[in-house]
Amino acid sequence: MSVAALPSAADLFGRRKYWAHRFGIAPFLPMSRAEMDALGWDSCDVILVTGDAYVDHPSFGMAIVGRLLEAQGFRVGLISQPDWRGTDDFEALGRPNLFFGVTAGNMDSMVNRYTSDRRLRSDDAYTPEGEGGRRPDRAVIVYAQRLREAFADVPLVIGGIEASLRRIAHFDYWSEKVRRSVLLDARADLLVYGNGERQIVEIAHRLGAGELIDALTDIRGTAFVRRGPPAGTIEIDSTQVDAPGRVEPHPDPYAMESEMRARAAAAEPGVAVVPLARLVKNADRARSVIRLPSFEAVRDDRVLYAHASRILHAESNPGNARALVQRHGDLDVWLNPPPVPLSTREMDAVYELPYQRVPHPAYGEAKIPAYKMIRFSVTIQRGCFGGCTFCSITEHEGRIIQSRSEDSVVREIERVRDTVPGFTGVISDLGGPTANMYRLHCKSAAVEAACRRPSCVYPGICPNLDTNHAPLIALYRRARSLKGVKKVLIASGVRYDLAVESPEYVKELAQHHVGGYLKIAPEAIAEGPLSKMMKPGIGSYDRFKELFDRYSKEAGKEQYLIPYFIAAHPGTTDEDMLELALWLKRNGFRADQVQAFLPSPMATATAMWHTGKNPLRRVTRSSEDVQVPKGLKVRRLHKAFLRYHDANNWPVLREALKRMGRADLIGSGKHQLVPAWQPAGTGGVPAAGERPARPAGRLRPGRAATQHTGLPPRPLHGRKR
Hints:
Helix content is about 30%, strand content about 15%. The chain has 25 helices and 25 strands.
């Protein structure tokens, strides 16, 4: 990773340990008073509250945060999946000496509990036996409220992916309205966004040294509430940075130079107002803060919402981001710039903390599905520079890739081999948010620190991006040569537009690291949705498939790609979905599972969904409008196109094809999409004389699936998946 031009940061493990380090390492972070007593603790310094079951594994956020704080010398307790209907569970470990840390868990609680069609899920992979209903909706807010009831004066820090993606005013899909920052609803003192290692360590040490929580306003990667900017602040109206133009019928909030002079005369003491002509070029960036349109403004005006989303994403590079501030009533929510990425040495140390790599013994023999999925996997990197607009990874983990050393990864594989119960010789994944961004970085540290592109690979691969896959190939070869390791599979998503830059990598992958099927994510094939997703054209898929098939055949293996697609994404028309359905049929794919686009908070695609505008370009009243397939009827139709082979979908598809003037696609010919007849017992009540159902027959090779959006398929730590 190239970080020479990024801001400097204190060594994550360079501080003097807190005095409580003398108690040593806990077998598991205690979840009861009895465990605390066994460790000789009279109290905890920090208590973490999480919506997940406690699995002491580095794929689980609270395990990383807890073990990291323990390594700093703090006594850390953990409250897992508390009963939120009262305060008893929140009081179980007593009052922490420093602060409570709260997260909904590895997944957003709303995504975890509801489908993209807002239907209640019956299970929860992060709960023993997959039991549903063990965490509340909007878990961060609810947990924080119970803690305020029980311990009103104890500092409260919220984090994890749920808090991270709600750090400013955001569109909430489940209530269909713009909600204010979760920081205010939770009544928390600090919000940690992104991967929180640097932030949480600094918070703990400074509180441990006697500082007050209200004084911790200078920590990167945090948000807090204040009533006014500090003296010397240079305040820049966001509409000067990317002016969307005059707004009607509301009063014009976009300050012209005459208005700037008037504002300067009436400015609060200590706040400098920058004339339009000078703007940012001459500003002291360290003292600059960009004022976003207020919560009330973005709630009431969709153009301003899209504009605010565009500015937020532009100010996401830790090398050049400025602080952001957004008014909520009479309070300001202040967002400091993103944290400095971890170095390779720091990443190694974080992932080599003394995790037990199994669930807490309190769960007995109960199975935790999420743990079963990742127990034999190893994270090799974090971050993603793809910038897909529907995904939360870049917004949460950042687009600068942070990679572990090869030696560290190998040591963890050996620990899995030697210590994890049930290991049979197969490593289920070496990856992270993506499979093949390991050690990829910008060729120039100066360019990396100054760049404001939302993606390094769209609309094409940036010439400054080093796409050398040699370090990853070397890691794969070393991993599979380890004694006792029979096979190393790659389950993380492969970024195929990068992979085709290295045919040797595709060969290595196809011939040694695929178990028959490989999942990849074209997401769409039409330019309309692809341009709104910031995904490559289907030509990249075709080139990857050609290489994958060739190298699989050379190895004598029959292997298939499983493409993932998203239904009802902004920018998608009925015609786009028809084109995709015909492509699927031509290529012999049948989608096993179909998921429609889920607008996760703060995502660029969610801004498109809510506003009908495209924040990837300058937003004005007359700027590009985005086709948004809203409404249950159109979402069901788009999902039906993906499952064209399901007889239950044929009536709605026949109706749509007739409406679209494509009745020629109704029939039993190879070129046609759905038959004119309907099997008995499908698609509603069968008409008299209907043909009986035909046998389904054998599925053709290559099944297709879809990806819902936002959160990756494997747990991330966010403290983050």
